[in-house]
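Figure 3 (text version): structure tokens given as input.
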């Protein structure tokens, strides 16, 4: 009889522990969700990158789809930015946030301030990263630049390609 009670107790403890882990996981996801704001919001402070990006195929990646294709989930996923903007609209094309992460929180002048960033780059860079800023790596690109589902696939070389996303001479 005592054995059964012990087993039941252990099972209950295990359930409680699993529930706790799941709640923690959900809280983490909640924190990771930042809003997409669209490339125009980045333009006011990053005019050079914006102008250079606007002239690349990424800016027009949604326009190359036909009206039917624009309604197909199996096509749009790699031809838009994120899923939905704050107002529920689709962000067309491969915008800033497709590579740098949704900017709703990091674009704040409390974080992306020229003065503060210059005075203490490490702190503000870390704040931006915590607020969702991504410094793109090859992984960022191959989410879309891969063969599966992409009939137009071309070989992708990150080192050669990364300079073409917003070529700015500094
Ligand atoms: C209020 C002006 C402002 C807005 C809006 C803004 N930024 Fe910034 N951003 C800055 C400043 C200032 C820095 C600090 C580095 C610098 O001085 O260029 C910075 C830094 C960055 C960096 C890191 C640069 C580095 O050298 O480490 C990236 C990437 C970036 N911003 C992307 C974006 C994107 C994408 C958006 C739109 C979602 C955006 N920013 C919106 C002002 C802004
Ligand atoms: C996995 C991501 C992905 C999916 C899904 C995808 N594409 Fe693309 N598409 C790309 C990439 C990346 C390119 C650029 C070519 C390359 O470098 O692979 C591209 C290029 C294109 C082009 C331009 C071709 C050119 O030569 O300029 C068209 C048109 C296109 N895709 C249509 C579609 C259609 C239609 C679908 C749905 C059947 C689709 N794509 C699904 C990633 C994708
Ligand atoms: C297709 C992916 C992609 C898109 C779209 C993109 N970026 Fe970038 N961005 C990068 C990569 C990759 C780097 C790092 C370049 C390197 O390491 O040489 C970078 C670097 C930057 C930097 C750091 C300084 C610099 O110029 O190198 C800023 C600021 C920036 N991006 C802003 C923007 C803004 C604003 C937009 C939209 C107008 C944008 N990016 C769109 C991939 C992207
Ligand atoms: C959200 C999906 C997506 C991501 C992420 C993405 N790309 Fe693309 N990229 C595309 C699509 C779609 C096209 C084709 C646009 C067209 O031809 O209309 C493209 C085209 C390009 C082109 C133009 C190729 C040509 O033939 O002119 C370059 C260069 C490129 N991407 C580099 C990159 C780099 C570097 C990264 C990562 C830093 C990246 N892309 C991330 C979807 C993406």
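Below: residues designed for each position.
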């Amino acid at each position: 009889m005592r054995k059964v009670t012990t087993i039941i107790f252990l099972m209950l403890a295990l359930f409680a522990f699993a529930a706790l882990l799941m709640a923690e996981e959900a809280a983490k996801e909640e924190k990771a969700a930042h809003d997409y704001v669209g490339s125009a919001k980045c333009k006011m402070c990053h005019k050079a990158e914006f102008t250079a990006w606007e002239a690349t195929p990424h800016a027009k990646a949604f326009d190359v789809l036909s009206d039917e294709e624009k309604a197909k989930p199996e096509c749009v996923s790699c031809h838009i930015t994120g899923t939905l903007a704050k107002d529920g609209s689709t962000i067309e094309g491969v915008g800033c946030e497709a590579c740098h992460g949704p900017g709703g929180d990091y674009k704040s002048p409390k974080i992306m301030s020229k003065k503060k960033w210059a005075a203490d780059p490490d702190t503000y860079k870390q704040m931006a990263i915590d607020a969702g800023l991504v410094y793109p790596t090859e992984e960022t690109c191959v989410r879309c630049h891969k063969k599966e589902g992409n009939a137009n696939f071309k070989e992708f070389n990150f080192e050669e390609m990364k300079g073409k996303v917003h070529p700015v001479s500094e």
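The two ends are 77 Å apart (CA to CA).
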